[in-house]
Amino acid sequence: MVTGGPVVMVWAWIFVAILTLCVTLSMAEICSSYPTSGGLYYWSGILVPKKYKPLASWFTGWFNLIGQFAVTAAIDFGLALLVASVISVGLNLQWSPRPFHIVLINLGIVITHGLCNSMGPRLLSWLTNVSVWWQLLAPIIVSLALLIGMKPGHQTASFVFTKFENYTNWSNTGYVVLIGLLQAQYCLSGYDAAAHMTEETKKADVAGSWGMIGAVVVSAVSGWLFLVAFFFGIHDYEATVNSVTGFPMTQILLDNFSKELTIFFMCLILVACWFCGLASVTANSRMIYAFSRDHAMPGSRWWHKVHPRLSTPLYAVWLSCFIAFILCLPYLGNSTAYSAITSVTIAFA
């Protein structure tokens, strides 16, 4: 909201979605020929001349792996901030979370993701099925409720689709717009997770490819609706940016609904974010498993082990959780840590 405002976020979302879909279609075509948990690093080795195969695979693998660690950290830490925001609303904004509160909430979230990923494919499959529908319906329900039930004083269509806002110290409009693009790029990343799960998927050559394409298309449509609904629901832009709740989204809901309804809608979103983090840990652990299977990581002999009874790469799961938590610890000393993590996500993943 500070790097361009409505006009950048609404239209950049469409622009980034189109470009992302082009990349996804190309990756899906490759995935249909080479469905493997390794995903990108394996494909890069296949597609380059033989003498460059080790170099291409190694660099692609490490960039992808670092990006996936950052993705998991960013999702879970962002969820921790959202949870704290909802708690603050529940306590009538009389409680302001301190950095160690956020880190402790984040630790609890990371542990739940680790535990659910450690209990075998049957539970994980069930959770994944629930996750698909929850992440599809939750933002649509909240968006429609906001569009239908918003209170007088909300914004006009002219504001939502044309208003430019710059709360940065940069005077270069082009640079501010480019920074604003990162929000959409961050949200529309991670679609390669379907590729990392292909070794555990029926008809992997088809399902993996369509999984990636479907993720981008559905996210693009529901995400755009979500953005438009929330921009319409803003009453005071500056007050929303500097909301005491810590999250503009929470403030927008509070401005249009009762405290109870706001908490209900936020809980729908919280669960959707939790499912997103769960899937991130799953994909990250399969990437670690595959990369270690090719002896490309320190301690590879541990990370590619699969538990004989649970049929899950337990060590890889908990390595993913551990590093995701460690990446969030700098927040204890510097509140810009979350921005840094999401930047790594965009650059590497």
TrEMBL record:
Primary localisation category: membrane
Parts of the chain that traverse the membrane: 65-93, 100-120, 132-150, 210-234, 263-283, 314-333
UniProt superkingdom: Eukaryota
Keyword Transmembrane attached: yes
GO annotation, cellular component aspect: membrane
GO-annotated biological processes: amino acid transport
A Pfam short name: AA_permease_2
KW Transmembrane (keyword) present: yes
Membrane topology: Multi-pass membrane protein
Alphabetically ordered keywords of this record: Membrane, Signal, Transmembrane, Transmembrane helix, Transport
Residues annotated as signal peptide: 1-28
Gene3D superfamilies the record matches: Amino acid/polyamine transporter I
The protein's name in its UniProt record: Uncharacterized protein
Annotated organism of origin: Rotaria sordida
